[in-house]
Design brief:
Two copies of one chain form a homodimer. By secondary structure, the first copy, chain A, is an alpha+beta fold. In chain A, about 55% of the residues lie in helices and about 15% in strands. Chain A has a three-stranded antiparallel beta sheet. Chains A, B: It comes from Thermasporomyces composti.
Chain lengths: ~120, ~120
DNA sequence: CGGCATCCGACCGGATACTG
DNA sequence: CAGTATCCGGTCGGATGCCG
């Protein structure tokens, strides 16, 4: 399986949480689903400029397996699949909020100091 | 330079924060330094079972470059180097706390449900 | 003691092509 | 539309050996 999550023995809480959100786009997916409530595969793809379908689906599957998101398939033609956050996903997003705020401040500080790499 | 951090243009705060803490041991280093205030290289190494010297020093250097930790060299024989958190490192650790709590709950839930991979 | 240099395997993630 | 399959390169990270 192309699973990157360890789901293994964890040293501490941070370790376990990082395991679940590590992956280039996962936090962005969380963010996106939290903002819009529900998103289709294509919408998600368009929301994350630069993501490949492979990585997107891989991340989505892992996040589903981790109980963070829900995948609802509509047996229609053309096919439709909607992704949304589970309760765990929502609480994770809440837990991520302070980190996001910290990062935001960091971005602003870097911009002010002109330390941003060219 | 063997730098894994992008320090590049960020999409959002989470993105910027994840950039700084991604790396197998960084959050643990943060945790360790926060608990003990100051740690020598060898102590840190012993605190993180399984870490290689290469990764430890690499992470420490990146975290120093990112302004998260302070490196103090004592010109003695034998040499001594002490690492400690900067103010930014401390605030990052604070921002990480909810995530750690979330992860801790996740570990407990996994244990209860016996879902932990063998 | 506290590093640095080098080699190397694993896997993370991108590009492309194909399918129901 | 929403994937799957395959190939492939770059990087992450471990092992080993050497140095001030």
């Amino acid at each position: 399986m192309a699973s990157s999550a360890r789901r293994g023995p964890y040293i501490c809480g941070i370790d376990a949480a990082m395991d679940v959100v590590s992956g280039k786009w996962k936090s962005l997916i969380l963010w996106e689903l939290d903002s819009h409530g529900t998103r289709r595969f294509g919408e998600l793809k368009r929301s994350l400029p630069g993501v490949s379908e492979k990585m997107l689906i891989q991340h989505l599957r892992e996040m589903e397996e981790d109980g963070l998101i829900h995948r609802k398939v509509f047996r229609e033609v053309p096919p439709r699949v909607e992704y949304s956050l589970t309760e765990h996903g929502k609480t994770l997003n809440e837990a991520l909020r302070p980190l996001g705020a910290w990062g935001k401040e960091r971005i602003e500080r870097l911009a002010r100091e002109g330390t941003l790499a060219t």
